[in-house]
Design a protein that fits this description.
Blueprint lengths: L6 E7 L6 H14 L4 E7 L7 H9 L6 E6 L11 H11 L3 E5 L7 H7 L1 H12 L2 E4 L2 H6 L9 E3 L13 H7 L6 E6 L8 H8 L6 E6 L7 H13 L6 E5 L3 H10 L2 E4 L8 H9 L3 E3 L2 H10 L6 H7 L8 E4 L5 E5 L19 E3 L2
Parallel strand pairs: 1-2, 1-3, 3-4, 4-5, 5-6, 7-8, 7-10, 8-9, 10-11
Antiparallel strand pairs: 12-13, 13-14
Helix pairs in contact: 2-3, 4-5, 7-10, 11-13
Length: 359
């Protein structure tokens, strides 16, 4: 893009402040901001309870950019309505081409889920309005068949962060007061579908020196979920071996990563997982307990190599790839951006993200 102004990319952030989705969006925005051919403009729309007025204000801040990137997780856009009214408010307020990364792309079964449910209706509207839709695996692409225009879907494998060395393992275990015990760990919000209860049940069948570390909090207003898990742990006799650590800042999280022996992702339903990508980046063994999770890992290019190899070969999260302007048709195109370090093949987030038509 020599001699041309940088591409102005807007990032609209929405959702729970401590969520993995927020972290994902910020990592992408931070990485894009480090490019000389991109100018980043960020706008925060607030949490799930944000008003329509706040949505309009946040979207309006991005009216002067060339393209907007936002994250779509239905729970952040009001699942009762399929997210369509809130998304329409955003689109009308900024009137810019939009690239949408879809998260929690689960299987939909039956006519209701695929055709008539608010979620399906909202997804079809989103597919019609967006310039490009990004998913993280071919499996996720297949799950969208018949719901959104196939030509708009771009598969960009979930990035794996490049981490510096983790803290000293012995020191981390001493800080957590787990000494010579073996630690199995589950990351993420405490919800019914994440699999905490399964871990507690499994713990009851494991040797006494195995402890479970749960990193994450309950969703606001749902403290009863954690209370129920604590009661269940007492009933099966492992309450003393279950640690609820809550939300952890990055330094404390890295200590847990260092102290962990086996990571668990026993999710009820599986889509591309930031938690699994975090374990890859930390070089920890991960037990993925669903067929879907294995299929996602295969699509990401990581499952055929041990986590340590994935971490060593991972790209930094460059979801925008090498951005260039095409004159034909007035289009913006996202080009390929090189391969992973360490001799690994397969693009990761260095691959093309989307081709966006200017309005």
């Amino acid at each position: 893009m020599t001699g041309e102004r940088p591409l102005r990319v807007g990032f609209l952030h929405i959702g729970r402040e401590r969520s993995g989705l927020r972290r994902y969006g910020r990592i992408i925005a931070d990485e894009a901001a480090g490019r000389i051919d991109v100018e980043v403009v960020e706008s925060d729309a607030g949490g799930r309870g944000t008003s329509y007025r706040e949505l309009r204000t946040a979207a309006a801040r991005l009216r002067d950019v060339d393209v907007v990137h936002l994250q779509w997780k239905l729970a952040d856009w009001d699942p009762r309505t399929g997210g369509a009214p809130r998304m329409e408010t955003v689109l009308q307020s900024m009137r810019r081409p939009v690239v949408v990364t879809l998260h929690d792309v689960f299987e939909r079964e039956g006519l209701w889920q695929r055709v008539f449910s608010p979620a399906a209706v909202g997804l079809r509207r989103l597919g019609a309005a967006a310039s490009s839709l990004v998913v993280h695996s071919e499996e996720e692409r297949g799950r969208l068949e018949g719901l959104v225009p196939g030509g708009k879907i771009e598969v960009v494998p979930h990035f794996v962060e490049v981490r510096a060395s983790l803290p000293d393992r012995a020191a981390s275990r001493a800080t957590l007061e787990i000494g010579g015990q073996r630690a199995i760990t589950l990351l993420g919000f405490i919800t019914k579908r994440r699999g905490h209860r399964l871990v507690i049940d499994a713990l009851a069948q494991l040797p006494d020196d195995v402890v479970a570390l749960f990193v994450g909090t309950t969703i606001e207003g749902r403290d009863h979920v954690q209370q129920g898990l604590q009661e269940h742990a007492e009933q099966v006799g492992v309450a003393h071996r279950v640690r609820f650590l809550g939300f952890l800042p990055e330094p404390e999280l890295e200590a847990v990563l260092a102290a962990t022996d086996v990571a668990l992702c026993p999710f009820e339903r599986m889509s591309a997982s930031g938690a699994l990508a975090t374990w890859f980046s930390a070089g920890r063994s991960a037990s993925r307990c669903t067929m879907s999770s294995n299929a996602w890992a295969s699509g990401s290019g990581c499952s055929r190599r041990p986590p340590s190899a994935c971490a060593g070969a991972a790209l930094r999260p460059r979801a925008w790839g090498s951005i260039r302007r095409r004159s034909a048709g007035g289009a913006w195109a996202w080009g390929a951006a090189g391969s992973a370090r360490g001799g690994a093949t397969g693009g990761g987030c260095g691959r093309a993200c989307a081709a966006v038509r200017r309005g």
